[in-house]
Every structure is written in structure tokens, then in C-alpha cells.
Design brief:
The protein is mainly alpha-helical. The protein has nine helices and no strands. Helices cover 67% and strands 0% of the residues.
Length: 221
């Protein structure tokens, strides 16, 4: 039963009680509870697809590679939805799926296979393609800032931390869930959130130092 992932106990409020405040997550949850997975996938791609493609472009340092990895992400999102358990926001989970898809694409040279799609699946992937095409136009015309170029000198893990927290304004619990390799229980999520906050402080301090060394204004906040 889905309700158990939203239960409030005397000891604590579970992670999933903190993830339904946004209108997007509420829409996604209602579609999920109605058993309409195509609607969940479509909404997730429409709401979160553009930002995820932007993250992939930074991670892979190529809009063309990001576009290919995004197709793999959309497939993994669709196939993974039946097992999604709302232990974190769907937004955070989607970012985790995208990260894993990018790793698989980069290491295995994976490409989206030829598919024999049902009508429902075909509709989902059509939405994914529309999001991908419209977002790529924006990404290819966006001018990189000096600080963004500085970020590219950082390890991928630090870049992704900055993107999720600064660019995408994700809550720390969502950042922790998105960067985790698996679902975390509430205590683990709390500890990981605290660890990432400290790491974030070190990363931003490093960026400010690099900016000062290159005579750039401080735009890392």
C-alpha cells in the first residue's frame, strides 16, 4: 500500500512526508495512486526533463552526448517507475536515474535500442523527444559564464552537487537522495544530507579561491 510511505510516526516524519509540498510532486503522486504510469512518466519528463538534460550536458560536457544519454534516461525512467516506492521525491529519483544512465552511456557506449513500443510507451517517448529537442535549442545558445567554466575544472561529483543545490535549488534531502546509489532510510538520509552540506561548503570555498586567483568576481553564492 502506498500510504505506508507517507505515514507519520511519533518518533519522526518519514522522508516522503517532506517531498509532497510542491504542486508537481502532488500531481505526480495523484497520477501514481490512480495507477496511470504513462501520465506519471509524461508529467515527470515535462516537469523535470529540461533540468535533467541540462545536468547531463554539464556532466558529459557535450550537448550531443547529453541528448543520447537523455534518451537512455527516459527509457530507464519508464522501466523503473513500477518499482518506485516514494522513499524520496520523484524529482530526486529521476536525477538518480539520469546519473546512472549517463554512467552507463559513457562506460558502455549504450544507445537507445530499437523498440517495439505499445501505444502508451510510444506516447511517453514522444514526450521525451519533444522535451529533448526544445531543451537542446536553449542549451546550445546559452553562453557559459566564467564561474561555469571554473566549475568544469572540478570533479564530476562536485559539479553535480553544485548544480543540484545551486542551479536547481533542490532541498538537501532531495540532493542526498538524488546522489545516493540506493534508497536511504530517514536516519541515513539525515546523515548524508549533513555530510553533503559540509562538502558543499568546501566546494564553494574552493571555487571562490579559484575565482580570486583569476581575478573574477565572486558569483559562487
Amino acid at each position: 500500500m502506498l500510504w505506508r510511505y507517507y505515514a507519520v510516526t511519533p518518533a519522526r516524519v518519514l522522508c516522503s512526508d517532506n517531498i509532497v509540498a510542491t504542486d508537481d510532486e502532488q500531481l505526480l503522486r495523484r497520477a501514481w495512486e490512480d495507477g496511470d504510469l504513462p501520465a506519471v512518466a509524461t508529467l515527470a519528463l515535462e516537469r523535470y526533463g529540461p533540468e535533467i538534460l541540462g545536468v547531463l550536458a554539464v556532466q558529459l560536457r557535450s550537448t550531443a552526448d547529453a541528448a543520447d544519454a537523455y534518451s537512455l534516461f527516459a527509457e530507464h525512467l519508464w522501466r523503473g517507475l513500477p518499482g518506485f516506492q516514494w522513499r524520496c521525491s520523484l524529482r530526486a529519483w529521476a536525477h538518480r536515474v539520469a546519473r546512472n544512465a549517463a554512467v552507463r552511456w559513457a562506460t558502455d557506449g549504450a544507445r537507445s535500442p530499437e523498440r517495439n513500443l505499445s501505444m502508451e510507451q510510444g506516447g511517453v517517448f514522444e514526450v521525451a523527444e519533444q522535451v529533448r529537442s526544445s531543451t537542446l535549442v536553449h542549451l546550445r545558445t546559452e553562453v557559459k559564464s566564467e564561474v561555469r567554466r571554473l566549475r568544469e575544472a572540478l570533479p564530476h561529483a562536485e559539479q553535480r552537487l553544485l548544480i543540484l543545490r545551486v542551479d536547481k535549488a533542490m532541498e538537501w534531502h532531495d540532493v542526498a537522495a538524488a546522489l545516493a546509489d540506493q534508497d536511504l532510510d530517514p536516519d541515513e538520509l539525515e546523515r548524508e544530507s549533513a555530510r553533503l552540506r559540509k562538502r558543499f561548503q568546501l566546494v564553494t570555498k574552493k571555487l571562490r579561491k579559484l575565482a580570486r586567483e583569476r581575478g573574477l568576481p565572486d558569483r559562487t553564492k
